Amino acid sequence: MGTDTRSSPRKPLLAVVGTFQQGKSTLVNCLLDDPYAPTGKGVATTRALTYFRFGEAEEVRLRRGNGDVEFLERREDIFDAERIAELALAEHDRIEVSCWKPLLRQIDVLDTPGFNAQEQDDRAALLGVDEADLLVVIVGAKELSQPELRLLDEIHRRRKRYAVLVNCLEKTGPAAGPSDDQVSDICAAVSSRLESKGQRPIAIGGEHAIWPCNLLWAWHALGHLRREADSSCEREEALQKLRWIEQHFRINHEGPVPRPSALLARSQFLPIREMLESYPWRSLQAGLNESEIILQRAVDLWDSELRHALSVSR
C-alpha cells in the first residue's frame, strides 16, 4: 500500500445514478460490453463509488479517503461480498478500475451506490452527482417513487445536466418491451411530472425526454447472459432471466427471441451508447449552456459530414 501521486488531465465524467436495484450496474456493463460492475439480487450491490477509466492493462485499485492506494489482485474481488466486507470501505473510499474499452478513451464512467439503500450510500451517491459532468438517471417502469423524486430534486438543485432512462426490469417475471404502450404511457407520465417541477432532462433518442429500454435484453444480445448461464456461479438466476425473455416473446405472440442484432435494436440500448459517443464532452467541460451545446453538436456533425464528403471526392 502507498500513496499514488500520479496525475493526468481530467476527462469528462459520466455518472450512472438511481435508487438501488434499478439496473445502474447493468447499464455500466452494457456500455463497457463486459461484466465489470457487480449486479445484485434484490439487495444493494454497489458499496462504493466505482470509477472506470481507460488503461492499457486491467488494474483494480482501492483508493482510500486519505490517498493511500491498495491494488486488488482480481477484478472479481469487487463482486465478492465477503472480500468487500474485509476491505471495510469508508464513505470517501473509492474503487478504480482501469481497462481497455473504446468509450473510456473519451470519458470516465462512474457507477454509484443505490440511492435510498442506506444513509452512507445516499451520501456517496450525491458525492458522485457533485463530481459528474453528465448523469444518466435510471428509474423503473412505474410511477416515480418518492426516493426517485428526491434524487431528481437534488440533481436539479445542483444544476446538473442529466438524462432519464426507464428500464423495463425482469424481477419476478417477463417485463414489458420498451416500445409497449404501457411503457410509453409511463414515460409520458414521468416527463409530465418532471415538467411540472421545472425539470428538463436531456433527450437521448430524437425528441424523447424520457428514454425507455430493456437493459437485460441488451445484455443478452451482447452475448453475456448466455455465458453466465453456461459457466457462472449465478447459473440458475441467468437461466431464469433467459426463460423470462423467451416468455415475453411467446406471450406477445412474437415468435422466438430475435437474433442478437435485432434484440439489441429492440432493447433500445443503442441510442444511449450513440448519444454518449457523440456527446460534445469538450463543450460540456467548457461550461457552455444547453443552447450552446446544441449548436456545438450541429457544428461537429456538419464538420464530420464535410470531412466524409471530401474523403469520398478524393
Write up what this structure looks like:
The protein is α/β, with parallel strands linked by helices. The chain has a single domain (9-279), classed as P-loop containing nucleotide triphosphate hydrolases (Rossmann fold, 3-Layer(aba) Sandwich), CATH 3.40.50. Helix content is 43%, strand content 16%. It contains twelve helices and ten strands. It has a ten-stranded mixed β-sheet with strand order 1-5-4-6-3-7-2-8-9-10, with helices on both faces. Helix 1 (24-32) packs parallel to helix 6 and helix 7 (224-231) packs across helix 8 (235-251).
Given as residue ranges, the uncertain stretches (5+ residues, pLDDT < 50) are 1-7
Shape by Cα distribution: globular
Q: What fraction, in percent, of the residue positions are helical? A: 40-55%
Based on secondary structure, the structural category is: alpha/beta
- CATH superfamily grouping: P-loop containing nucleotide triphosphate hydrolases
Task: Summarize the biggest pleated sheet.
Answer: 10 strands, mixed
| Ends apart, CA distance between termini | 56 Å
Number of helices: 12
Structurally, the number of domains stands at 1
The first-level CATH class is given as Alpha Beta
Rg calc: 20 Å
Oligomeric status: single chain
Please count the beta strands (DSSP E, at least 2 residues each).
10
Strand content: 15-25%
In N-to-C order, the SSE pattern is EEHEEEHEEHEHEHEHHHHHHH
CATH topology: Rossmann fold
CATH architecture assignment: 3-Layer(aba) Sandwich
The average pLDDT is 84
